[in-house]
Structure formats: structure tokens, C-alpha cells
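Report of the visiting student (M.T.), summer placement. My assignment was to run the structure pipeline on a short list of targets and document each run. The first record concerns Large ribosomal subunit protein uL4.
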Amino acid sequence: MANVSVYNMEGKEVGTIELSDAVFGAEIKENLVHQAVVQQLANNRQGTQKAKTRSEVSGGGRKPWRQKGTGHARQGSTRAPQWTGGGVVFAPVPRDYSFKMNKKEKRAALQSALTSKVQDNKLVVLDELKFGEIKTKNMKNVLDALKVDNALIVINPDSENVQISARNIEGVATASPSTINVYDILKYNTVIVTRSSVATIEEVYA
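After the run finished, the C-alpha cells were exported:
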């Protein structure tokens, strides 16, 4: 098991914590990490792009001129793709870009991402993180004490004051242990977790 230092909100070391190898010391599987990131980005795509084909454009029912004898190339409709106002060839249509990953693969990808943060010393464990009031300055002071400016803060859902206090800080995002994902873990330089969040993550993703 990996031993990681535990800090308080003033940035002082107050102890250590043993992290479960099942979650924070797993084998890093880069192929699954890549697949998980691609899946999340694909699932976030709206896929609502649309253009009309020649069968959907209004008008053009009448042949513009007779087949032979005009000197023009033969034309069947003024809504063919080569005409101004005509349909689009191979027009894009709404589609679903999402795809699925097996639960075991998603879990292995998340374990790999968390393990990489531990190996890079980019996982910071706090003894606790709670504020008596909603104040951005309080959150900024904690980040400055930890010497962190780009972080994903993993807190329990009941920490509303912390969540709102961090909302307006650029380069900082919050998530609960049940909603963390590979993309956000890799997107931010540092992952900050509390003792209680570590216990929840180990329980859910072990």
C-alpha cells in the first residue's frame, strides 16, 4: 500500500494515510484510459448537425427545360446538388456518437488514472475540507497553502459551501466520489481528496 501525506487546510502535514493498492496502486492500462476519455468526449457530442438532401429541399419538381435541343446539359430538377439552392450531397444528419464500455473496463481505466496521479505525486489528501460560509477567498487560501492552482477537488455531496466557494475559481472543479471520471482526473494537474472521500472511492471502485 502507498503511504501518502495528509495535510490540513493551512497546508501543514498532519499525518499519513495508506491508500488501497486495488484503486490507487493498480496496473496502469493506457489503452483503457484512452478509450474512457474518447468515450466521454463522444458521449458529450450533441450530434445534431443537419443539412437537406435533394429529396428534402422544396421545389424543383418540374424539369427546367426539355431533354434535347437546347444546347444546355440535360437537367432533371433545379434542386439537384449542382444548382444554387439545391440539396447537399451526402448531407450530414443527426446521429448518436456515444458508445459503451464494460463496467470492468471503466473501473480499470479510473483506477489507472488515479494510480498515475499517485505515482506523479499529484494526489493531495486533506484531513478535512469544510467552510462555515460560502466564500471564494476561503477556497483560494486553501489552494494557495497547498501551492495548487489547477485542481479537481473531490468532496462528499453534502459539502455545498465548498462546492460553491470553488465554483468561480478558474482552473478548479469539484466532483463527488461517485461522479469522478477519467477525463477530469487527467484534465487537471492535481487531484485533491479528503480522508472521507478516499474511503468512499476505495469502497466504490475497489
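Strands lie at 2-7, 13-19, 123-126, 151-154, 172-175, 190-194. DSSP finds seven helices and six strands in the chain. I thank the supervising group for their guidance throughout the placement.
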